[in-house]
Write a structure and sequence with these properties.
CATH superfamily of the largest domain: Tetrapyrrole methylase, N-terminal domain
Number of strands: 10
CATH topology of the largest domain: Cobalt-precorrin-4 Transmethylase, domain 1
Largest sheet: 5 strands, parallel
Number of domains: 2
Helix content: 25-40%
CATH architecture of the largest domain: 3-Layer(aba) Sandwich
Number of helices: 9
Radius of gyration: 19 Å
Oligomer: single chain
Structural class: alpha/beta
Order of helices and strands: EHEHHEHEHEHEHEHEEHE
């Protein structure tokens, strides 16, 4: 089987019992960041020995966006030898992370693909946003290109103004640029930004773009989940 295993996005206590037992029972783990995953598993062994027992860490192999195409044939061979787990750097794999091509190929070849659900920054942020959650559109990271990002925001304004909550990811290096573009295209609208979810410095910023921009000028650490609802303005 190919297991798609969610791991914590910050707080290690968010790992599920099922995820722990799965990760220590498979033959191989495909990891977006192999060194980080190795440290994570060692920490889990120390904190939850009653769950891990005498099981040993499986072999961890790198599987990131730069290697995905070339790594899929090898991953399929590993599946023929035993169970394999796929993990991302944090959270639920495939959500703005590599893996869907592997899942597609595994399904095509008749392997069973099993989800081990858990932490997701998208769902965590939505649940505390205060914005409507009955319909949402997740668009992940917009382009690094200013022109392409602005064009994407214009498309959002055109297509998603019927009550859907829009969920975007942004890096600390581009969040201020993104807010500038959003204000230019949407106006000084109300938005919600969640950052450092489940971590010590977790915070949720709510307000007009200009207000949030002032709060972020001196503090742009962490990954950002940006949420807007154009009908709520």
């Amino acid at each position: 089987m190919l297991y798609i295993v969610a791991t914590p996005i910050g707080n290690l206590q968010d790992i599920t019992i099922r995820a722990v037992t799965t990760l220590f029972s498979v033959k191989y783990i495909l990891a977006e960041e192999s060194s980080k995953t190795s440290i994570f598993l060692s920490t889990i062994q120390e904190r939850y020995p009653e769950l891990v027992g005498n099981m040993t860490k499986p072999k961890i192999l790198s599987f990131n966006e730069f290697e995905e195409e070339n790594a899929i044939p090898k991953a399929i061979i590993l599946l023929s030898e035993g169970d394999v787990a796929l993990v991302s750097a944090a959270g639920t794999p495939l959500i703005s992370d590599p893996g869907f091509k592997l899942v597609r190929e595994a399904v095509k070849r008749g392997y069973e693909v099993v989800s081990i659900p858990g932490a997701s920054s998208v769902i965590a942020a939505l649940s505390i946003s205060g914005l409507p959650t009955n319909k949402f559109i997740f668009l992940g990271f917009l382009s690094k290109s200013t022109v392409k990002r602005q064009n994407s925001l214009k498309e959002i304004k055109l297509l998603y103004s019927h009550g859907e909550t829009i969920v975007l990811f942004e890096s600390p290096h581009r969040i201020l640029e993104m807010l500038t573009d959003m204000k230019s295209i949407f106006g000084d609208i109300y938005i919600v930004i969640a950052k450092e979810l489940t971590k010590i410095h977790e915070s949720v910023l709510r307000g007009k773009i200009s207000e949030i921009n002032l709060k972020l000028v001196e503090e742009t650490r962490g990954e950002f989940v940006v949420m807007i609802n154009l009908k709520e303005q």
